Amino acid sequence: MEPIMNQIWPKVFQRFHRRSLFSRRSLSSWAEHATVSASTNSRHMKPTLLVSRLYQPSNLHEVGQNTSLQGEMTCKSQRLMQQAGLIHPSNPGCYYYLPATVRSMEKLIRVIDQEMQGIGGQKLDMPSLCSAELWKASKRWDLMGKELLRLKDRHDGDYCLAPTHEEAVTTLVAHQTSLSYKQLPLLLYQITRKFRDEPKPKFGLLRGREFYMKDMYSFDVSEEAAYQTYESVCQAYTRLFARLGLHCVQVQADTGNIGGKLSHEFQLPADIGEDRLLLCGNCSFAANVETVSSDSTDCPQCGTGTLVESKGIEVGHTFYLGKKYSNVFNATFSNAQNKLAVAEMGCYGLGVTRILAAAIEVMSTEEGIRWPGLLAPYQVCVVPPKKGSKADKAAVIAEELVQTLADALPLLRGEVVLDDRTQMTIGKRLKDASKLGYPYVIVVGQGALEEPTRFEVICQKTGEIMFLSKEGLLDLLGRVETI
Ligand SMILES: [Zn+2]
Known about the structure:
Elements: H1 2-22, H2 24-35, E1 49-50, H3 76-83, E2 87-89, E3 95-97, H4 99-118, E4 122-123, E5 129-131, H5 132-137, H6 140-143, E6 149-152, E7 158-161, H7 166-174, E8 186-195, E9 210-220, H8 223-243, E10 249-252, E11 262-269, E12 275-280, E13 286-288, E14 307-322, H9 324-329, E15 332-334, E16 340-342, E17 344-351, H10 352-363, E18 380-383, H11 394-408, E19 416-418, H12 426-436, E20 440-443, E21 455-459, E22 464-468, H13 470-477
The protein binds zinc ion.
Residues 280, 282-283, 285, 299, 301-302, 305 line the site of zinc ion.
GO molecular function, one term: proline-tRNA ligase activity
EC number: 6.1.1.15
Organism: Takifugu rubripes (Japanese pufferfish)
């Protein structure tokens, strides 16, 4: 391999170097052309995001509702996300996350970061490629069975692509010999790709083989302190889902192969959910059916309510681990008496890509995506008139409006797109906008040419249509929450 590389590399390098010197000028003008519309490319103006230029290869008019996609079982979110050019299937259980999805996911990650750091979480990033040694020490190398994606390196060493990081984080903390009780609780988390060898990947991003997860691990001085940390993480999860406008239930759960004594799932009630939940109509009792041994439908908590079964999509999971892993890897700290003690642990997951898909699943209509407001890839779509139509002259007003919004509302910077496909009627573009789910769609038509100027604003979530002046529009959009 090496000699070949030595032969090729200098030439490739030379060519690359030469080209980059020669074409610097043309490259920069290309970049300008790519983002700036023809009539707004004067120097003082900010670039406008044009729908015709966004890489969102949608099939809004081609894929029928019942088309089976790549032989996987489909659901509403998968169908809508593929039609809208948000995801593209690669191999079973794996997807390309296209630019609009990445924008949405980055927003979700910012919300998660705020909530996790709000309770003292510190973000790190651990290797996905994990040595079998660690997993053998915890005995999970055998316990995980076929779900663990295993591979060998060139030295015949066993590795896995990690689905979770209890072993890795505990051994990391164990390596710090000077950890003091004054530094606890220690909450470490990451948001990374995880892997699971699903036998039957299905439902798009809801059950894939490669996905993003937020996993946090806590280290505490005592069982009591660990329960307090556990509680504060559960509260942060509840706040997070409330901010996204998602109805989420916290249910008692089975501890599964992670182990430990106490566990809760965070479930979004949905028809396609794979978990069966029992909810009490009378009190806050909620449990996964797996954890309820009796066949009785009486609520064990209040005694008077009746348990009703519902289906749910699991979007979060918390576990109190005790010393299960800290004993194995010897994760210790020096206590107030200056003696070494083994840390009490907890672990807390959130399915990042799953939250996105589940939110689309529960909020959308059959025809179009509806986003949690904070997570929409773009907040506003401005629709100018059709070329050659009566209102054609309003096209300039639409472009000016986009600039005005960018100048007056810094929070909307990068959030406003102009649907410049003016060969299409306004009606057709509104249909597409409804399918893609921009929270606000502004039609710049005949009303924009009249005195007083009026813009038609469609609030997609409620379906409400308003006719507003420019000031009214700025006032409305100034209240949009972005992250
Ligand atoms: Zn009850």
